[in-house]
Design goal:
It is built from 4 helices and 10 strands, in the order E-E-E-E-E-E-H-E-H-E-H-E-E-H. The longest helix is centred in the middle third of the chain and has 13 residues, at 101-113. The strands form 3 sheets. Strands 7-6-8-9-10 form a 5-stranded parallel beta sheet, with helices on both faces. A 3-stranded antiparallel beta sheet has the order 3-4-5, covered by helices on one side. Strands 1-2 form a two-stranded antiparallel ribbon. By secondary structure, the chain is of the alpha/beta class.
Length: 211
Amino acid sequence: MTLPEDAVPEHDDIVYEAYCMRCRDTIEVVDPHPIWTRRGQPALQGDCPVCGGTVFRLGKTDLHQNRERPSAIVVAEEHEKRKRPRLTRDTVYLAAAAADETAAQQIAADLGKAGLAVWLHDSEADTSVWSGGVHPALKECTRMVLVLSPAVPADAVLTAAWQFFRQQRKPIVLASVAPADPPDPIRRSPRFDFQADYWLALRQMLNALSR
């Protein structure tokens, strides 16, 4: 028995909503498409109809049906058997707590549109256990953007990441997405308020990263 056409669900007719950090409002996603995060979590990515920026939402949707999750991205040590491409010299390490994944993904997308290569931090503890003691991306990236929120102090893996950058005297800038005081050792790092004015904060941060 064949169902009538109007009884067959079409993904094009489904409205997906996401929170746009730039507009500070929940919007209907334009051109939504399924993606998977670095940790293999399903998510939705698309555009904001108001500002045109990229929006991101965690969670599985109908768009993920019949699609296989891609293999996890692995960055290995030099002496391991698996070969890997080196990160570009000017890659930015974008560090964020797991609770700030949405904000991190949106900032990463806008940095990418500005021409910067971005490596997204993974707060899963087992990804930071390397024979050399330090994740290779931390060694190769020259700059860090730390997404600042109340979740930062409680994230041990994230703390180890920014502490390594500070010990190596590599620049760290802070992208504030929620009211929170920065960790004392990096309180003097350049800080940009993405809550007050997203686009202004992004432009100012891009200038700081280009120095």
